[in-house]
Amino acid sequence: MASSGGAAAARVPCVMLNTGHAMPVLGFGTGSARAPADLAATIEHAVRVGYRHFDTAVIYGTERAVGVAVAEAVRGGAVASRSDLFVTSKLSIADAHPGRVVPALRESLARLGLDYLDLFLVHWPVAVAKKDPAGGLSMDDLVPFDMEGVWRGMEECHRLGLARSIGVSNFSAAKMSRLLALAAVPPAVNQVEMNVGWRQEKVREVCGKNGVVVAAYSPLGALGANWGSDAVMESGVMQDIAARNGKTVAQVALRWLYEQGVCMVARSFNEDRMKRNMEIFDWELTDGDKEMIATIPQRRACRGEYFVTPDGPYKSLHDLWDGEI
After folding, report:
1. Which residues neighbour 1 within 8 Å (Cβ) at sequence distance 6 or greater?
2. Cα(268)–Cα(30) distance, integer angstroms
């Protein structure tokens, strides 16, 4: 694996995407209702600690902060140039329409102050017809998701050089198979909820056979979020393994993901935990550790109930996840 750029970041390996671009396996997440007031300064600090991959989205409201941090990191010498950083953003469900994809990416780039994204993802296989008057998203206005039409827009973003790699998020194994069958430019990444409490075997199998990198969000279970799970951080199994290895539970959880061959986006605004979350690449879990982790009960935490309506395209969670619940 290649270095992710810069001496400070040499500890974070990269994976090569099917587009020929390298993506650091550990990213810094910015989606949180409890982000610090000066998020840009926190992100810039993360650059100095050694993070090189930053994950944002329209719905997070953090694109501007990421853009400011990238500019400051370059200006202050934390990295030599913008090309040393890998920036991911996502297409909003309000823009998940064939004619809106390219304009939406241009709007994201304007907020970020960037010429291109390293990775642009379809956030959900979901579309709403319009935003509500307050600027939010109205789940009363869900419409069928035009997978092929939206993906043609994503491919245009790639062709124009606005996104070096394109992919999806929250796609089931069945939806991945459908997308792969119609894609002229195959998705590079599927970013999904994945952790020791939700192992995503079906998605990983389809992606693995087709050269698609799986990236895990909520690798620590998103404990504290309104949909989060205690299956990782409050697991007795994980606590026992951490104690035996002299590691934190978070480090064990992230190391397990790394050993599964997936990438991950971890979020912590605490400077100490920020550093600790990077310290996962120079040790290994034992076979006994992995056997214990395999006993942890499985449950999807981010279920997307808000996309399920009696009159909408997804009338049940089974429809949304194609039975993978």
Report:
1. 13, 14, 15, 25
2. 9
Yes or no: say if 113 and 67 are a contact pair by the CB < 8 Å rule: yes
Residue 93, token pair as written in the block: 């469900």
Does 54 have pLDDT greater than 80? yes
Can you tell me whether residue 150 is helix, strand or coil? helix
Q: pLDDT (tens digit, 9 = 90+) per residue, 77-135?
A: 999 999 999 999 999 999 999 999 999 999 999 999 999 999 999 999 999 987 655 55
| Active site positions, annotated | 60
Task: Return the SS3 of 261.
Answer: coil
Is the pLDDT at 12 greater than 60? The verdict is yes
How does DSSP assign 123-154, residue by residue?
--S-EES-B-TTSSB-GGGEE---HHHHHHHH
Distances (CA, A) of 184 to 125, 152, 181, 310: 18, 8, 9, 34
Model confidence, pTM: 0.93
Going by C-alpha positions, the residue among 66, 41, 59, 68 that lies closest to residue 96 is: 59
Which tokens is 200 given?
A: 């995503």
Pairing of strands 213-217, 263-266: parallel
Quick one: tokens of 208?
């693995």
* pLDDT at 216 > cutoff 80: yes
Residue 221: partners with Cβ closer than 8 Å, 6 or more residues away: 195, 197, 228, 229, 230, 231, 232, 233, 253, 301
**Among 63, 78, 7, 70, residue whose Cα is nearest residue 31:** 63
Please choose, from the candidates 276, 271, 278, 280, the residue with its C-alpha nearest in 3D space to the C-alpha of residue 9.
278
Q: Tell me the two tokens of residue 4.
A: 């992710």
Strand, helix or coil at 161? coil
123-173: pLDDT as tens digits:
999 999 876 555 566 667 899 999 999 999 999 999 999 999 999 999 999
Q: Are 176 and 211 in contact (CB under 8 A)?
A: no
Cβ atoms within 10 Å of 181's Cβ, excluding its own? 8
For residue 255 the two structure tokens come to 């190391």
